[in-house]
Automatic annotation (TrEMBL):
Keywords: Membrane, Transmembrane, Transmembrane helix. InterPro entries: NnrS (IPR010266). The keyword S-adenosyl-L-methionine does not apply. It comes from the Bacteria. The chain crosses the membrane at residues 20-42, 62-79, 115-132, 144-166, 178-198, 218-234, 240-258, 270-293, 305-324, 336-352, 358-378. This is NnrS family protein.
Length: 391
């Protein structure tokens, strides 16, 4: 039976053998194209017609189109390791990916708004159902918080799309910002597992980093609270008392970074990229605290520190490392990837600190970073593992 399963797995085209392959590649290409299109709109180079305008499209697609694609690729791959059960591959994976792609294209197709909404929600619904099936069947209770965050993300997407349907821009904004901070929770959950592990392995450290479950639980609870405050509309106006949860988040993220830090990370691009990207979670939390205290003029600076620096940076660094590890290749990326990591962080810094006239340069840094990933990793993701494993 095992021999038969292996033959069946090897008969599947490499791109469709595990979730990280299609979703990492397509997600990187989408990140490049979507931000390039948004920059073209901002500079008046194009004027496309989409439901509720291009701002609504940009708000929705960065967390729910780009972010969720990479989350799906990572989790559909990781769940196989967690549970010891085969994850999606072959036709079921192609079907799920097809829903994601159809949802992206539907914005620019002459389809009724209800069809657009159904396609958007179908992808996240099917993805959650698959994750729940595997985690519940294996009784992986320690991973149930991931199901909670995914379910809350689906709820936020429903809010966003409801706002789109009734023309309520405030509801759209609340849904998107709540989703963005839920993605921060997901980044914290995943980063809290892999960054210390990758750091230990990458530097040949024998002793593992000490686990602190209380810190992880507090980060989860505080992050969900912050997202709920965005969804309810409380975080849309500056109030000094609302700085408190963001200060707590800042302290907790700072503790993690301090615990994980080893000077040797700066010799390894696959490590310093992860640590630097995680630092943007701290910066975003501090930025929101500063805005609520009246020390920062625009909350969008904190939102883009989270979206560009933390989400974009951790996604790029994670994809670069996971793609090599799960294809049996040495953990030595192309030299150009160090430039990609640097450009991504430079783009985040420009987007957060510079004025509107610099948005094009920030978008260029982002685009080149993901273009470098796509160029160097497309062959890796589309080819079989080098060790002959059917993954």
């Amino acid at each position: 039976m095992l021999l038969l399963d292996r033959k069946q797995a090897l008969a599947i085209a490499p791109l469709w053998r595990l979730g990280f392959r299609p979703f990492f590649l397509a997600g990187a290409l989408f990140a490049l194209l979507a931000v390039a299109l948004w920059a073209a709109v901002l500079h008046g180079l194009t004027n496309l017609a989409v439901p509720s305008g291009m701002l609504a499209w940009h708000r929705h697609e960065m967390p729910f189109g780009f972010g969720l694609a990479i989350i799906a690729g990572f989790l559909l791959t990781a769940v196989q390791t967690w549970t010891g059960r085969p994850s999606l591959s072959g036709r079921p994976l192609i079907t799920l990916f097809g829903f994601w792609l159809a949802a992206r294209l539907a914005w620019f197709a002459p389809v009724p708004l209800p069809v657009l909404i159904i396609l958007q929600l179908a992808f996240i619904g099917l993805f959650i159902a698959q994750m729940a099936h595997q985690l519940v069947a294996a009784k992986q209770r320690n991973n149930y918080p991931i199901l909670l965050v995914l379910s809350l993300l689906a709820l936020c997407q429903s809010f966003t799309l409801a706002g789109l349907a009734i023309g309520d821009g405030d509801l759209q904004r609340r849904g998107v910002l709540a989703a963005l901070w839920l993605i921060a929770v997901m980044l914290g959950l995943i980063g809290g597992r892999v960054i210390p592990f990758f750091t230990q392995r990458g530097l040949g450290r024998v002793e593992a980093f000490a686990a602190h479950p209380w810190l992880d639980r507090l980060l989860l609870a505080c992050g969900v609270l912050v997202a709920a405050l965005f969804a309810s509309g409380h975080n849309l106006q500056a109030r000094s008392w609302l700085a408190v949860p963001f200060i707590v988040l800042s302290v907790l993220h700072g503790l993690r970074l301090w615990r994980w830090y080893l000077p040797g990370i700066w010799r390894v691009p696959l490590l310093w990229s992860l640590h630097l990207a995680y630092t943007w979670l701290l910066v975003a939390s501090l930025g929101m605290a500063a805005w609520h205290l009246g020390w920062l003029t625009r909350p969008s600076q904190a939102s883009h520190a989270l979206a560009v620096g933390a989400m974009g940076g951790l996604i790029l660094a994670m994809m670069a490392r996971v793609s090599l590890g799960h294809t049996g290749r040495p953990l030595q990326p192309a030299g150009a990837m160090a430039w990609a990591f640097g450009l991504l962080n430079l783009g985040a810094l420009i987007r957060v600190s510079a004025g509107g006239g610099w948005l094009g340069l920030a978008a260029l840094c982002w685009g080149v970073a993901f273009a470098l990933f796509a160029w160097h990793y497309a062959p890796v993701l589309c080819r079989a593992r080098v060790d002959g494993h059917p993954g």
